[in-house]
UniProtKB/TrEMBL annotation:
Keywords: Cell membrane, Membrane, Transmembrane, Transmembrane helix, Transport. This is Amino acid ABC transporter permease. GO terms for biological process: amino acid transport. It is a multi-pass membrane protein. Signal peptide: none annotated. The chain crosses the membrane at residues 20-45, 66-85, 146-170, 190-212. Residues 21-209 form the ABC transmembrane type-1 domain. SUPFAM superfamilies: MetI-like.
Amino acid sequence: MGYTFDFGAVFDRAPELFWGSLGTLGLAFAGMILALVIGILGVAARTSKNKLVRAPVVSFVEVVRNTPFLVQIFFIYFALPLMGIRLSPTATAIIALGINGGAYAIEIIRGGVESVSKGQVEAGFALGLHKADVFRLIVLKPALRAIYPSLTSQFVMLTLTTSVCTSIAAYELTSAAQRIESDTFRSFEVYFSVTAIYLVISSLMMGIFALISRYYFNYPTR
């Protein structure tokens, strides 16, 4: 082939990849927080007996889960300004990640909530707990333990999805890699290195989530 591998260009630009990785983690963390908030509030509305409260959440979940993330982020960044709503690339990325992750979080958390027996809920009311306390202490905590593996896997996927945010010039790892590649023309070396970095980030996140699970959810169920 006659191609000479040279990772020197990548090593010379390592600080840019480092800051790009921090940008990815920043977008992912902010998106996760927003997704979790949307998920919890969405489940409270999704399980409501009031159809007027439940229907918008069902529609939201269906729309988000059945449209590409790229289209969603383009809509927020390019279409909303036509209605006078202008957001920076970073703000757009966080909102888009939160909305996308939130739609999946609603269904994941809802599955956990519905796994809690009605007897436990009725016992909470019998003890005189307020509805909000019943949801927080009796329903939400056991549900989070049940859905924790699925929820954390979704958050890892959300972290990898941040790479799409480079399409609107949000600063993260892939956008940093594109700049380095355009300057050095070392496509293989740059994207091989970025692939390794994403693998490290994903592995670290799974390890951290496992430690959290061991610390917070390691209690007997009976």
